[in-house]
Amino acid sequence: MATRIGYLLPTREQVMAGRPEAAPLIALAERAADLGFDSIWAGDSLLARPRHDPLTLLAAVGGRVPRVELGTAVLLPALRNPVVLAQQVATLDQISEGRVILGVGIAADLPNIRAEFTAAGVPFEKRVGRLLEGVRLCRELWTGAPVSWNGRWRVEGVLGVTPHRPGGPPLWIAGALPASLERAGRHFDGWLPNGQDAKTWAEQWAQIKAMARAAGRDPDKLTGAMYLTAAVEENAARADERLNAYMEQYYGQPAHVMRARQMSFAGPAAGFEAWLQGYVAAGVNHIILRFAGDHERHLKTLAQMRAKIAG
Question: Helix 127-141 vs helix 82-95: angle between axes, to the nearest 10 degrees?
């Protein structure tokens, strides 16, 4: 199966630039779809890295852009009541007629993210348990059957709006720690990390598939994805400067720290193509791209090489 290519909308970047209007983001989604991208993605944060709400924005995209998949990269379920989240996601999946992919994460342990959890009234230390139980509760609610739940949340009732896709959208989890790999193999439908070179990704993906097999699951039904960042310019030094400035502004941390944590590329188009092909050769099923720099130009650049990359 050909590798699918996704595009991350610059919601954070637009807010940082003082331009919170949604219309330009929807226009970028339409442009990406016209150029042949397979999926459109949006990130998530309340106060730590302010941006648009991903589910609301993707609902608008889904109403304007047909066919392409709509994903979160990544949503933080622990910040949300799972009953409300289940209803929101089911509604989004109905709007898009079954095109939703719910990428989720537990959130990094950083002061601004801890403050975000405090502002939302959620205990940061319990975020992993809240994520796992919340996801299980969502899946129960998405069946449309009566739910009787007694855990962190007490639920008695039926969610009237079920997803368009039976059982709900596929759930992909981020992270690459041993516990994250185990969760991906045992409980989720896909894996969406951002910190591995192609060789390391392939090794960890093999571990996830082995864990899925040991848990009695079919590993071939799981999706292996990768979230990547790129600044593509023929002048390699200028591309490197652009990527460094982007990382520092986005995260408020030194560029070398963030580039060690997140896989990124800076340089000419030919090198970018070869870099992406390395991930395809490693077995990545779905690549989600975040661009540093002019998005229209990057979208065109990727579109021109897409056939060679996707296989």
Answer: 50
- Span 89-145, pLDDT tens digits: 999 999 999 999 999 999 999 999 999 999 999 999 999 999 999 999 999 999 999
Q: What is the band of 289 on the pLDDT scale with cuts at 50, 70, 90? A: very high
Sequence-distant (6+) residues with CB within 8 A of 66 are 33
Pair 233, 268: CB distance under 8 Å: yes
What's 104's domain CATH number? 3.20.20.30
pLDDT band at residue 309, thresholds of 50, 70 and 90? confident
Count: domains in the chain:
1
Backbone angles phi, psi at 7, to 5 degrees: -125, 125
Nearest 5°: CA angle at 277, between 207 and 189? 40
Cβ atoms of 97 and 70 within 8 Å: the answer is: no
Whole-number percent of the chain with pLDDT over 70: 100
Structural domain of residue 44, as residue ranges? 4-310
Average pLDDT, the chain: 97
* Predicted local distance difference test score (pLDDT) of residue 267: 98
311 — pLDDT class (breaks 50, 70, 90): low
CA-to-CA separations, 31 to 56, 138, 190, 308, in angstroms, rounded: 19, 32, 27, 20
Residue corresponding to tokens 């591995």 = 196
Exposure string for 187-208, b = 16+ CB within 10 A, e = fewer: bbbbbbbbebebeebbebbeeb
